[in-house]
Design a protein that fits this description.
The chain has 21 helices and no strands. It is mostly helical. The chain has three domains: about 60 residues, no CATH class; about 130 residues, no CATH class; about 220 residues, no CATH class. The protein is globular and about 70 Å long. The N terminus is likely disordered.
């Protein structure tokens, strides 16, 4: 399928018959696994083919603009912006205040679906670097991502940007030095942890913008650069010291990016970018879902609820919190794909999980793979202790999530304890699901639990209730509030 004559080829290497004719198939870079998504996107594909065929008659300038599917991605991104209503409110505010010089009150978009402000600057950066080589494009993204994030979120301060850029420059400089890899890793790891500590405790930085993001991006970005572009990843080893040094990058990069997960062979850059557009649109849908549920649950007085209404409220709060995480990760994944980084999906219809272990196969997939590879499998190979392997995997996951909190001036011990309890209970639930078929094989076969649609629905409901209760219980500030919540929950 193409829009060119038989002598011309599209970037995907596909050929058409005559100019002006379009094939029935979707463009080669539009690939879908689900049939319903194929049907949904067919009109988009036909619109793309029609516009592309029309633009081909526009001469050299127009042909340059549609190079590498530029026109399609421009239209898709404009559609993305159009679907986020608060951007229009913000644009109207800027026009009234700075163009028309009107005395207008500061705009409040807190009631709109949640989309980070970073989306628009990243789109602009994407178009500016569209025709650059992948290496230069990624360099610009890595250097400018954090300052843009600080600026876009409206909390810009010069020291944060300066400190971060100095840190990043030092990391890149050390990476280029002709010294041993272990020395480089020791320096980078130490610098990342030092920056995290200073951003929380040094008076010069404490309270500034960099404190909220140093825990993730300051460690992630140089690790990504080092692991992917400068040297091949080291061989796996269970030697404790080498394990800690060599896999530090994967510890901090695992939530989204690792050298193996992020940079895998791909068919075409167009396909990667189109997958980025899909991830961003999924983020928009997640934001609408979270926004709708929040508007329903926020006016409700949680303290007056008990029994099933309280359970439904807890589930709603759990979905809202998870949708926020889903939005942020999908936007990051989508924008990374736009820049040519083939990051795999990190979520897979997590609301449809039928068991707790299936939930973790669908949620934060890349972190789970890291935990399985470096925690679960080594324990199983060494001792074959299923319970210990499961519990160690979950508790390590919890500790990784809590690392930034240990750098606070006053360590919040109760929230840390309640978070670890959440991971501990997850481990027990997963172990129970794993052991049930071996303990009661006859029951499994008799009830047809594995194949019955009824049991699938029951499993989804029970798993949803389990995580709703866990997340709501972990949100309280002391044991009294937790006990009161559980008492009201089981009052009918």
């Amino acid at each position: 399928m193409s829009f060119l004559s038989t002598k011309n080829k599209m970037p995907d290497g596909q050929v058409s018959t005559k100019r002006g004719q379009t094939a029935n198939a979707l463009p080669g870079f539009m690939t879908f696994s689900a049939m319903w998504v194929q049907v949904l996107f067919k009109p988009v594909g036909y619109l793309y083919m029609t516009l592309h065929d029309f633009m081909l008659r526009g001469g050299r300038i127009v042909n340059w603009l549609i190079r590498d599917h530029f026109l399609f991605f421009a239209l898709a991104i404009m559609g993305t912006v159009f679907l986020v209503p608060r951007y229009f409110v913000i644009a109207e505010y800027f026009v009234e205040k700075y163009v028309l010089n009107l005395a207008v009150p500061r705009v409040d978009t807190s009631g709109f679906p949640y989309i980070p402000n970073l989306l628009i600057p990243l789109f602009i950066l994407f178009f500016i670097t569209y025709f650059l080589s992948p290496r230069y494009r990624l360099t610009i993204l890595l250097i400018l991502a954090l300052p843009l994030a600080i600026l876009a979120e409206g909390s810009f301060d010069v020291p944060s940007a300066v400190v971060y850029l100095i840190f990043l420059a030092a990391v890149f400089l050390v990476i280029k030095l002709p010294i041993r890899r272990v020395v480089k890793l020791i320096f980078i790891c130490s610098a990342a942890v030092l920056l995290l500590y200073l951003s929380r405790n040094w008076p010069f930085l404490a309270g500034m913008s960099i404190g909220g993001i140093a825990a993730f991006q300051a460690a992630l970005i140089p690790m990504l650069w080092y692991s992917v572009y400068e040297e091949l990843p080291p061989k796996r080893t269970m030697n404790p010291w080498k394990f800690l040094l060599y896999h530090y990058a994967r510890i901090f990069g695992s939530p989204v990016l690792t050298y193996k997960d992020a940079f895998s062979p791909v068919d075409s850059l167009s396909k990667v970018r189109f997958e980025g557009i899909k991830a961003i649109y999924v983020a928009l849908l997640a934001s609408l879902l979270g926004w709708a549920i929040a508007n329903i649950t926020d006016p409700i007085d949680e303290a007056s609820l008990q029994g099933l209404p309280l359970l439904a409220y807890s589930y709603g709060q759990y979905v809202v919190r998870y949708c926020r995480i889903w939005v942020m990760f999908n936007l990051f994944i989508g924008c990374a794909r736009l820049f040519g980084i083939p990051v795999r999906d990190n979520f897979n219809y997590w609301l449809l999980a039928r068991t707790p272990n299936e939930h973790w196969r669908r949620w934060n997939i890349l972190l789970r793979e890291w935990v399985i590879t470096f925690i679960f499998f080594p324990i199983m190979r060494a001792k074959k202790w299923v319970f210990i392997a499961i519990m160690a995997s979950l508790m390590v996951s919890g500790i990784l999530h809590l690392i930034p909190r240990f750098f606070d001036q006053e360590i919040p011990w109760f929230p840390i304890g309640s978070s670890l309890s959440y991971w501990f209970l997850n481990g027990l639930a997963i172990y129970a699901v794993v052991k049930f078929p071996t303990l009661f094989p006859g029951t499994m076969q008799k009830l047809k639990i594995r194949s019955s649609k009824v049991w699938s629905v029951i499993g989804i409901l029970l798993t949803s209730a389990f995580y709703g209760i866990l997340h709501q219980g972990a949100s309280y500030r002391n044991l009294t509030e937790v006990g009161n919540y559980l008492a009201r929950l089981f009052t009918f």
